[in-house]
Structure formats: C-alpha cells, structure tokens
Design brief:
The structure is a single chain. This protein is mainly α. It has a single domain, classed as Arc Repressor Mutant, subunit A, CATH 1.10.10. The protein is 51% helix and 8% strand. A three-stranded antiparallel β-sheet has the order 2-1-3. Helix 2 crosses helix 4 and helix 3 packs across helix 4. The chain is elongated, with a radius of gyration of 15 Å.
Length: 105
C-alpha cells in the first residue's frame, strides 16, 4: 500500500511485515520526536492491544481524559499525514502492491 504524506511525498507501506511497517511509520512520522512516540505508543496500546484508557493512563502517568484526547489527536494526525493513494484502475484500493518503505529504518 502506498500513501501520500502531507509534504506530498509518496511512501510505500508494507502490508505483510509488521516490523517493516512500524519502521516506516517511525521514519516518516515519529523519527526522534518523543511526544509523537508517546502518542504512537498510547494509540498502539489502546487500538492494537485493546488496553482500556485507564490502564494506559496509569502506565503513562496521565488521566483517562488525557489519553482519550491524545489517542484521538494521534489518529487524526496519522489520517491527515498518511492518506491512501489508491490505484486508479482498482476498486477501493484492491490489488495494491505490497511495497516497502522508501525511507531507510
């Protein structure tokens, strides 16, 4: 799957290798920004692992409300930054190639 970043750069995100996928997200979104890493970690714990906001709040020393706002803001930020680049000849992106990440992780 490929996405277009907010800077207009086309980036291929791997669909089958989670490690490569997260390396791409790290390189394109978080890099060395500690706040973005924290936000990605909260999003991953809530969305990927199903942790309730109360548990994430305990882990990060935050309130449940702060976690909910942070997760929502991160989700919006990722959607804005990485919008899908659907293949024009396919319906709703089916048949997209499994690419790699342009950035070296």
């Amino acid at each position: 799957m490929s996405v277009i970043t907010s800077r207009g750069t086309k980036t291929l995100l791997p669909r089958r290798d989670p490690e490569q996928f997260w390396n791409c997200v790290r390189a394109e979104y978080a890099a060395e920004d500690r706040r973005r890493w924290k936000s990605l970690a909260m999003l991953t714990l809530t969305e990927g692992l199903g942790w309730p906001p109360e548990r994430v709040a305990l882990a990060f020393g935050l309130t449940r409300r702060q976690v909910n706002r942070g997760v929502d803001a991160t989700r919006r930020s990722l959607k804005t930054r990485f919008r899908p680049d659907w293949d024009e000849e396919t319906d709703e992106g089916r048949g997209m190639s499994d690419g790699g990440c342009d950035a070296q992780a």
